[in-house]
Amino acid sequence: MSTRIPRPLTFAASAAAVLLVTPGGLRAQDDPNRSILDQVRRADSAMAQAVAERDVERFARFIDDDATFFGRRVSRGRDEVVKAWEPLFTDPNVSLNWWPERVEACSAGDMAFTIGHYERKVVNEKGEAEIGQGTYVTIWHQRAGGVWQAMVDIGTPPSPPPLPTPGPAPGSVQEPKPAQH
User: Fold this and answer.
1) How far apart are the C-alpha atoms of 162 and 63, rounded to whole Å?
2) 159 contacts: CB under 8 Å, gap ≥ 6
3) What string of DSSP letters covers 70-100?
4) By C-alpha distance, which of 15, 4, 26 is closest to 107?
5) C-alpha 174: how far from its chain's center?
6) Where are the beta strands (DSSP E) in the chain?
7) CB 101 within 8 A of CB 40
8) What is the pLDDT along the chain (181 residues), one digit of tens a residue?
9) How far apart, in whole angstroms, are the C-alpha atoms of residue 113 and residue 37?
């Protein structure tokens, strides 16, 4: 049986691979040029903070004019991305938090990517929180004036919450656990 990787995930993996084989390679997090990595980490974290604070204008400043974001549908361009993310700014029952865990930059220092985890929370009609978690990759480009903007963003589909651990079947006999000394 063959497992087919969803097209957006294939694209993100390909884009990250292109950055990895760029002439000169990538500068790892322990590289002397840490300021670029720190700038990108701060940009990613600040974009997350803008979403957490429901500040759509600040969020939009982190999105490149020609960005492509993969979500329920593909959004191209800043306006489409902002529109697709609108519920995160207007619906009090929906929230998204994320944090970058890895930052890499190309040797030219004008492109980078972040990899991290996210948590999406939706409060349903019963008032119960439904939480999904996943990972994401954002590819960043440094614009004029040193401003970092997201060009591509993709996340894995949210994982469903873990199922409760089943207990013993009704009427079943449990073996006694040996005493530990």
Assistant:
1) 33
2) 132, 133, 134
3) ESSSEEESHHHHHHHTTHHHH-TTEEEEEEE
4) 26
5) 44
6) 26-27, 63-70, 74-76, 94-106, 111-123, 129-142, 148-155
7) no
8) 434 444 444 444 445 544 444 444 444 445 556 899 999 999 999 999 999 999 999 999 999 999 999 998 999 999 999 999 999 999 999 999 999 999 999 989 999 999 999 999 999 999 999 999 999 999 999 998 899 999 999 999 877 666 666 666 566 555 555 555 5
9) 9
* Residue 116, amino acid: G
| 120 residue type, one letter | R
Which DSSP helix (H) or strand (E) runs through 43? helix 34-52
3-state secondary structure of 53: coil
Residue with tokens 């300021």: 35
Among 80, 153, 146, 58, residue whose Cα is nearest residue 115 = 153
Output the six-digit token pair for 7. Answer: 């097209």
